Amino acid sequence: MGQFFDDETFAVVDLETTGTRKEEGHRIIQFGCAIVKKRQVVKTYSLMINPHGEIPLAVTNLTGISNEMVASQPDFAHYAAKIRKILAGTVFVAHNVNFDFPFLNYELEQAGLDPLDIKAVDTVELAKIAFPTQPSYKLRDLTASLQISHKNPHKADSDAYGTAILLVKIIEKLERLPQATLNLLGTMAPKLIRDTGWIIKTIADGSRKKRRKLPKDKIQVQNLVLHKQELPVVQEGRQTEFPVGNEAKKKLFKNQINYRQPQVDLIDYMHEFVNDDRQRILLVEAPNGTGKTFAYLFAYAYQLYSGRKLVIATPTKVLQEQLLNQEIPQLLKVTGLGLNAEMVKASSHYLDLDGFASTLRQPAPNKTTLILQMGILVWLTETTTGDLDELQLTAEQLPIFTQIKHPGDARVGTRFASVDFWNLARRKQEQANILVTNHAYLVNHYMDSIWGQNPYLVVDEAHRFAESLVSSRTDSLRFESIWGMVSHLRNLLYFTDNNLAKESEENVQLKLLLELLDEESLDLIRTLNRMQKLVYSRKDKALGQRTLPNKSIQFTIEGTDLFPDDSPFRSLLKEFQQKLEQVRIHTNQIIDLLYRERDRYLTDEQSLMDELAEQVDHIDYYAEKSYQLADLLSQKENLNHLGFIVHVTNPGDSLSSNLHWMTLDSSEELHKIYDRFDHLSFVSATMSNDGKFDYAKHELALNGLAVDSFKGKSTFDMDQHLKILAVDEHQPEPDSPEYQQLIEKILTKDLNGQKHVLVLFTSLDLIKKVYLNLLNDPRVKDYELLAQGLTGSNERLAKRFVIAEKSILLGADSFWEGIDFHNCGIDLVIATRLPFESPDLPEVRLKQHYLAQQGIDVFNQESLPKAALRLRQGCGRLIRGEEDHGTFLILDPRIWTKQYGAYFRASLPARVEKVAIKELKAKLKMAR
């Protein structure tokens, strides 16, 4: 039997153009085409075309095609008949077919020929369905990930060839899918772009005739095919004694891992700590490359046969995955211990099979949701966890996520209860000896029974732990958003063209509900407005105010000043909660009534019910926030530790007020967490300042507790791996106009073969200015230019930075340390200025004022050590292990001119070399 599409000829096309708007005179400059027959590329075409116009510099930078290259080439009219002949009778394929196909047809018509009337297929949509776990669907990234070789990305002929091989791989992947999955995909496929669904439908219909059996590693529940789920086998290993002494460890490590004395010293110190009942808390600073993760795992592992669990908390998903997929397997291989490890994360990370199945019975509201659903169907045949993080999604704002994220209840009696991903995850966690979680989950679920009795705790990247707790206790009640939600609800019910109120005349129950809800919703808004006016009236108590670029104003106010004892706000908040609950109840009753009597009122009643249900979700969200605020205000002592920001979006209008809050002292809650665990180790590469742990103890609320500390040594000579350069004192100050020009000059003239360059800022506004000036500069054309707040989410920027062959990333905030660049050898990190927090930021102002009230020297005990640690963290981006080399460049001359500059220099892990700008290019070259 032949293969699918053996009788078809695919013409896989890629166009390079002078722009994207054909009607405005943009033209084709290169036509590339790969002809595919019987899954083989049998012929390729590459035609350079004169557009009779200038090729923009940005296009030349991207494609490498210049005006000189096309000046002597024929124009499109010369090639039009040939191109049409090549494509006649084929299936047109492109990566983003809705660009290439219409553009080419437009050019054909301009040349006096009929447009092509052939099937047109899009490999972007097909790739999203067939390969749902890819981090990016750019052609360049897909071909790299799928190991498709094409020599010249962004050249039409090379891209056409790469797309052709991608098409073949997609077809082969779809053919292997179980029939039930193909059946579902086939019913959804007609809604894909142009004729893209024809590929899936053809495979689904054709494979049905082959009557294939379900593979042994798959299971079908209802109409969903899943990869079979199994609890991990309890690891069998030898229960041995901890290897005391260096020789015993050398013997154990031999032929498995390198023996490094600083790592062994850390292992021994932590092992003694774990076995000393008189000690409970240990602070550890271990430089990057020390192997600190293996060290703490090794130190605790031999204690886990007693039935006690080891809980490890890290700040990021990447670090958690590294622990589970690399570090713990290595530990078990070296030691021979039989231990199981599992990830612990919120239920919302897992797919709710019951919820997902219900979405398949409803029409997809948009193309993005449809493709996501189809990709999940394919993913279900592969995943063994149901962890949505595997999908690397960037569209979690879609309404479907409220239906498909697991709510965390124990499923009993539902259609998919027996294969529920969340229940499976909990069973795995109960069975595990080591549990890996993140800081945020731990601070919010430290009393969870899953940790077991008297568990051990290691907090990795511990310098960020207190910050995680503060972030989890920072929230808001956006009054304007609530007002907007209620207004939208009223619009749906009373004011649209076919509003429900008009349709309710014949149904007394519905009419009464609508009348009741009308008054309740108006009453809710009135209460809301009174709350807004009340917080607005306290703005004169503000510690300070900040005007944002959009002219809105933020007032920073202490809790006791915003809500004095006689404030009526608490009673208003309770009244607000009661009225919000009434609106929720009666909106739900209307939804239930519409559902019971569907088809009686509106032709689009399903759409209305979906929108009403979405508003109920919003109501639940705002109710939760209001109860959080009520809990905080219920105890007067809480107010002493709270700071508030009244954000007025329209100055002078009290009804544009919104409320944000943050905790200023987390010590009490941190102590509650510490009490839940035993033998707590706080581990980080940046825990000390000038060899002392004072700042870390203060931040982690450890002052007054019995705390031991250990400062490890590097396993290699840092000066041989890390070059630290700082521009001399003759350079412009960070706040001067020449400062931006200095940054741009370095990025355009002084980079010397560096492939991954991370530029760290303290201002998003400056990032924008630098990015716009560099965007079309030919001197950085070989780099993918990424900028925080401008070219995607922080997570997307990190992925693009790692994937790109050469990239420059302009980042602030978490890019100093919080965002992970996994397996990416960064060549150069540029710190544009010393990273002091701006006292103008409301949250900084509140925290510093609170500390000053406690009698703390804010600059020397808070601002300076915090900035020095952040500078070290930025430097730490470069050297993650013994194989890494890189350069850290500091552009702030204050490191030489200010008295505190010596403190910064002393905090860094290698000697700081002063450099003049004219020497910089040569220094960067030498550093490589």
TrEMBL record:
InterPro entries membership: ATP-dep_Helicase_C (IPR006555), DEAD/DEAH_box_helicase_dom (IPR011545), DinG (IPR006310), DnaQ (IPR006054), Helic_SF1/SF2_ATP-bd_DinG/Rad3 (IPR014013), Helicase_ATP-bd (IPR014001), P-loop_NTPase (IPR027417), Ribonucl_H (IPR013520)
Protein's UniProt name: 3'-5' exonuclease DinG
Binding positions for ATP per the UniProt entry: 286-293
Source organism per UniProt: Lactobacillus porci
SUPFAM superfamilies: P-loop containing nucleoside triphosphate hydrolases (SSF52540), Ribonuclease H-like (SSF53098)
Pfam family membership, one: DEAD
GO MF: 3'-5' exonuclease activity; ATP binding; DNA binding; DNA-directed DNA polymerase activity; helicase activity; hydrolase activity, acting on acid anhydrides, in phosphorus-containing anhydrides
Known role: 3'-5' exonuclease.
Positions of short motif DEAH box: 460-463
Residue ranges annotated for the Helicase ATP-binding domain, each copy included: 248-520, 273-493
Gene Ontology cellular-component annotations: cytosol
